[in-house]
Amino acid sequence: MATIVVLRHRFDAFRLEEPRFLARYRGRYMLAAVLAVLRERGHRILHTNRPDRAPPGDLLFLHVDCSVVPEEYLAAAARYPAAINAGVRDITKRRVSSLLVTPGDGWDGPVFVKTNLNFRGYPERVQNRNARLRLRRPPHAGLPPVREYRRYDSPAEVPDAIWRDPAYVVERFVTEEIDGLYASRTYVFCGPAERCTLHLGRHPYVKAHNIVRSVPAEVPAALRAMRARMGFDYGKFDFVMQAGRPVLLDANKATGGVNNPALAERIRAGHVALADGVESFLPRARRPPA
User: Fold this and answer.
1) CA 157, 159, 161: angle at the middle one, nearest 5?
2) Positive/negative CA dihedral, 207, 254, 25, 132
3) What Å distances lie between residue 239 and 8, 104, 276, CA to CA?
4) What's the rounded mean pLDDT across residues 246-273?
5) What's the CA gap between 187 and 198, in Å, rounded?
6) 43-61, pLDDT tens digit by residue?
7) How far is CA 172 from CA 3, 19, 98, 203, 246, in A?
8) pTM of the full predicted structure?
9) Cα separations (Å) of 237 from 34, 184, 186?
10) Alpha helix positions (H), the chain
11) What is the spatial distance between Cα 183 and Cα 64, in angstroms, rounded to a whole number?
């Protein structure tokens, strides 16, 4: 069996060094449940938030939950025989989005205003809070105020202050419709393990609370190519289809967990498949027998 080291941000809230933390954090990150499967298989799981003192191991899982990974964590990952997500440094909207709108670029349809940071900068806020609690300097300066994503009917309606503020981006608002319902798709993966789900709802912004139906879907080859270009080994992409092509809405390398008792068996099967994906990065000598 192998030693798998999970490297997280020094001020992150993800703690699983002891079994008693498992129940508390299982719903926060999907990785927690995947690691539980790997531990059941006999792998040794070590956690560290010190890139300068990361313990030796067969595989490093880089799970630094912020939009831009500091260089010291990437340097630590480079010291391991294998590492997951060591090629993903920057997932800000300006880096990953193909929907960005700029004044005068010709787009006159509806737009969405979002933070440049992923998930409204929430992970960075958590890390700043934890740093203050430890009487340390917050690592992320100049975070924007927390605001709900705002839709406008055209770029002309977007306030000038938003265009001038680098903390925000303006994106084209695109939708996919199937049989009178709005569609959104999720692509979850780790190495060769992957699954894609089509979610249908009655609101243009399809989210967990307003989904009417979810069904398995094919993974578009173009999305796999996009993932390879971006260097993702593990994560979740949200996307829609436009003219037969995937349009990426969000890219997340530290995706949250799912807690739905009605789907417990299916969720467990997904975690088992992702654990298989983690093991695919291990040297053959350290993989369990098939």
Assistant:
1) 160
2) negative
3) 27, 26, 24
4) 88
5) 9
6) 999 999 999 999 999 999 9
7) 44, 44, 9, 17, 14
8) 0.92
9) 18, 11, 6
10) 22-25, 30-40, 71-77, 93-96, 122-133, 160-164, 221-230, 264-279
11) 30
Residues 197-214 pLDDT 10s: 999 999 888 887 888 999
Q: How far apart are CA 290 and CA 282, in angstroms?
A: 14
Confidence of residue 283 (pLDDT cuts 50, 70, 90): confident
Which residues make Cβ contacts (< 8 Å) with residue 116, sequence separation at least 6? 67, 92, 93, 94, 166, 167, 168, 169
Between CA 55 and CA 105 the distance in angstroms is: 50
Sign of CA dihedral 203, 208, 211, 215: positive
Distance, first Cα to last Cα, the chain: 13
The tokens describing 55, both together, are: 């313990």
3-class DSSP state of 240 = strand
